[in-house]
């Protein structure tokens, strides 16, 4: 870049280094120009020249050096000098959005043949020279087809998981059959539990009494083994195991052949309780034998279901609510504990899908402050699946009776590990309230709530709950894979509530070891039935 002033001071020329282009030429009038004016002019030009140089360099780097005329350079450089840029890319994006909106508003033609992959779509686009609108239409049709297939696959997965959770694994079925056979052929498997000299302990309130209601022999063994091995005073433990008539022989045989001394174990079938008569449990008999109820829990779960308006999560919740266990007498027995154990004052009730990892004897020292049920509340956590539950999550508040008597924001609590003060319980009408609401829900064709035994218990125990520290009872190990492992290790009781039980193939592999560490794999019955050979 050169600056040339004529000898006569009549002209000023700015030119490029190669001399071919005159960037700027100023002709000065013949009249006299003061040196001060000239100085200021040169000063201004010296200030502007670096910017002209930089813009020229940028244009050159972008290929503007191909321009053969000053006009070309002006067209390229002018907008930049004025602060404007090329907006062709933005116009292209706007046009594409416009096409997408048009395609989204149109119906996809029936019988349209769709490519099987994106690569095939691109290939067809090249071969058939699709315009942008046709390409967008094909892409939309492919995405909607993929969404439908994914949705159908998810519902199929949920159905298969429901059937897997509701069925009895071959290994557990084998275990029950072999132990039942052993009970009939081996006198040692039929020995009295506990031995006659220990019978007074069954009603001695100085011991720590646990109650477990289950028809799963292996699960019961894990609950008992984990409680005994985690206890600082196992000699003070008494387990009362209640099972159904078909499982009684096998359950009795297991604990007769596999004692957990110094702890004491009693096994009783529901048929051995004199109090459990039709007169005392008429509602439960109606629930278990009502044709409509049995069809709801055992029938075709897809019949009448409008999956197009149902999310997978909602469908999963509905399937969980239709688990056959919810109409089992064993699942409702906890509401009759004061009558089934008239001589006991305080007990801990456990579900069969829990593992005890810490000494539970301090539970008997907790003051329930006149309440009946010591339980962990499930409304104060961040986990939306388990620990953020209120009454609205369990009840249909569009039903007039529910809306009238219950508060949707009331905090829910958990079954699975509960401390029951049976002396205080006997002074209440909890059982009658439970029966009343079961009858109402039955009368209203199960429209007040769907999910099992917890909803009527939430009503019956209303005002009788004493919250205990959440570290005593950690829930959700059967629902989600994102369980905090370190938190699970510290919990006193971990609960595999949900479909993914640890004894099923659908159980979560990384959570299974908490449970399997208490399975006796050296036992002949367990080994011969190939338990947990997954």
From TrEMBL:
Pathway field of the UniProt record reads: Glycan metabolism; pectin biosynthesis
Question: Which keywords annotate this record?
Answer: Cell wall biogenesis/degradation, Glycosyltransferase, Golgi apparatus, Membrane, Transferase, Transmembrane, Transmembrane helix
What the entry lists under SUPFAM superfamilies is as follows: Nucleotide-diphospho-sugar transferases
Q: Which residues cross the membrane?
A: 37-61
Q: What is its EC number?
A: 2.4.1.-
The subcellular location is: Golgi apparatus membrane
What are its GO biological-process terms?
cell wall organization; pectin biosynthetic process
Quote one Gene Ontology molecular function term: polygalacturonate 4-alpha-galacturonosyltransferase activity
Q: Which domain of life is it from?
A: Eukaryota
Output the Gene3D superfamilies linked to this UniProt entry: Spore Coat Polysaccharide Biosynthesis Protein SpsA, Chain A
Give the protein's recorded name. Hexosyltransferase
